[in-house]
Amino acid sequence: MRFRDPIFCDNVGMPILLTLTELESAINFWRQRSPSVGEELRLCPEASSLATPYALMIIERRKDIEISALSERAQAAISGWRESLGARG
């Protein structure tokens, strides 16, 4: 997977914006890696940290979000997802 145009990247080449589709892919990655547990089907911490920004983006009809607007845990989850993409490619 190639990331967007370098104009939308920080000084180390990491994208500063995350699209709704990318966020959904990251959630699905973490859900597959750590399936929901318990009677309430609780999400793993990584997927859970991404669920709120995902819901807000849908409600606000946003196409992307700045990664810096995410919590530290959500940023770490995005980082882990991106690392997994590099490992497969």
General description of the model:
With 89 residues, this protein is mainly alpha-helical. The longest helix is centred in the C-terminal third of the chain and has 17 residues, at 72-88. It has 3 helices and 2 strands, in the order βααβα. 19% of the residues are buried. Helix 1 packs across helix 3 and helix 2 (45-59) packs across helix 3. It has a two-stranded antiparallel sheet with strand order 1-2.
Topology:
Layout: E1 17-19, H1 20-33, H2 45-59, E2 64-66, H3 72-88
Helix pairs in contact: 1-2, 1-3, 2-3
Topology as a string of helices (H) and strands (E): EHHEH
Task: Give a short account of the largest sheet.
Answer: 2 strands, antiparallel
State the secondary-structure class. Answer: mainly alpha
Task: List the strand order in the largest sheet.
Answer: 1-2
The backbone outline, from C-alpha atoms, is globular
What is the share of helical residues?
A: 40-55%
Task: Tell me what portion of residues adopts beta-strand conformation.
Answer: 5-15%
The value of Rg in angstroms is: 13 Å
What is the rounded distance between the termini?
Answer: 8 Å
Oligomeric nature of the chains: single chain
**Spans with pLDDT under 50 lasting ≥5 residues?**
1-8
Q: How would you state the average pLDDT, rounded?
A: 85
How many β-strand stretches? Answer: 2
Number of helices: 3
